[in-house]
Q: What sequence folds into this?
């Protein structure tokens, strides 16, 4: 049971918009700790996609965006492409656990 | 370009020890906090440990506290994770990553990972 809750899977057709939610609590996202998002393509290492709630590292397309509100965060992907098919993880810090915490991951399928 | 290359993974018996390494290049290594993150087969990501740029501060997940030791040699641009009293549940791919923040992580650059298998 992950401290941050993500849907196990989402799907969308090419060109569509999908969102992935990350629900936390008052000891992590709600306490003001940053949320980061990672993309893990099949058989590869994770890659930082969004940092500090809504910032994109250099090289990440602006089709990817992040937002945060209260005790949850969201990753939005617009103009869905086949190459976006991957696992996506949110990550924050939990002050009650004094630990870095990850969501359980969401598998994105491009139909 | 930042490159991180893990090594040292392998098969180890329960109760045994293993040290994995992460060689870094393309960055001023001593300026970066570093972390280890693991991923059990078919499972999600789990943060394991972090160390400050100087090596003076270290942090561990409860699941490995007292059994794993993180360290670094800034003269060799290398990060280490010494693992002892290994259990079957420690079986995972171990990734090293640069940390945007020592405490809250935010892994900017990741290695390709090294597989540690704990089995008799």
A:
């Amino acid at each position: 049971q992950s401290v941050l809750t993500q849907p196990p899977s989402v799907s969308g057709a090419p060109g569509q918009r999908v969102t992935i939610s990350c629900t936390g609590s008052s000891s992590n996202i709600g306490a003001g700790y940053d949320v980061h998002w990672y993309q893990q393509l099949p058989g590869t290492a994770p890659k930082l996609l969004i940092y500090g709630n809504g910032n994109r590292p250099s090289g990440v397309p602006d089709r990817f965006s992040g937002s945060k509100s209260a005790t949850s965060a969201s990753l939005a992907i617009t103009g869905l492409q086949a190459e976006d098919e991957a696992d996506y993880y949110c990550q924050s810090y939990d002050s009650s656990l004094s630990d870095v915490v990850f969501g359980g991951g969401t598998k994105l399928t491009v139909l | 370009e930042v490159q991180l290359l893990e090594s040292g993974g392998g098969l180890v018996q329960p109760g045994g020890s293993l040290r994995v390494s992460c060689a870094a290049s393309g960055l001023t290594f001593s300026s970066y906090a570093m972390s280890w993150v693991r991923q059990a087969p078919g499972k999600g990501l789990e943060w394991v440990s972090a160390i400050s740029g100087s090596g003076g501060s270290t942090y561990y997940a409860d699941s490995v506290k007292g059994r794993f030791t993180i360290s670094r040699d800034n003269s060799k641009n290398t990060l280490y994770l010494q693992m002892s009293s290994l259990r079957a549940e420690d079986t995972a791919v171990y990734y090293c990553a640069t940390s945007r923040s020592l405490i809250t992580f935010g892994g900017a650059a990741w290695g390709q990972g090294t597989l540690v298998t704990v089995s008799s």
User: Anything to note?
Assistant: The radius of gyration of chain A is 13 Å. The beta strands of chain A are 9-12, 18-23, 36-40, 47-50, 64-69, 72-77, 86-94, 99-102, 106-110. Chain A has no helices and nine strands.
